[in-house]
Amino acid sequence: MNLANRITLARIFLVPIIMFFLLINLDLPPVQFKEFSITYNQIVAALIFIIAASTDSLDGYIARSRKMVTNLGKLLDPLADKLLVSAVLVSLVEMGKVDAWIVIVIISREFAVTGLRQIALLEGKVMAAGKWGKIKTATQITAIIALLINNFPFEFIHIPFATIASWVMAGATIWSGVDYFAKNKELLNMANS
Length: 193
Fold this sequence. Notes:
Elements: H1 3-23, E1 31-33, E2 36-38, H2 40-65, H3 71-94, H4 100-122, H5 131-148, H6 161-183, H7 185-192
Antiparallel strand pairs: 1-2
């Protein structure tokens, strides 16, 4: 197994660790700054999430620059991304930090685009990530980090950045899904024939 695929696997293995810190109460006092409060669990989970999310670009860069692109990597990379984002978002719903409907929209889009990718594979085509897919990923990572750290530092100036970022994440996710289907509608026609 090459280095790029090992990095991708590491991202998958970080998912349960992040969930542990998000969902298990370690009974430590929270960090307090005036009216702002955050648990140590959230701080650790946010740091691990940032590390895991940053490996997405790293493994792709290594695979392309060293000509290590493999079929296993093509399978694992999007799977790792979906596991990371979905697991953390579901955990954030459990914590009451994001609305369930936003997470349902995001996960539904991921299933729909994965299905479209499967149709493309059956037709011998590869669907590369488009501009909107990359924007969607960036908005998801930004919103998740803001939610994990309780809207820090925007909480001090009373700007609901985490909430705004959640709405932007939902919008970008919907739009990127529409974009994938619009650009690949011939695949659906092929699947019907």
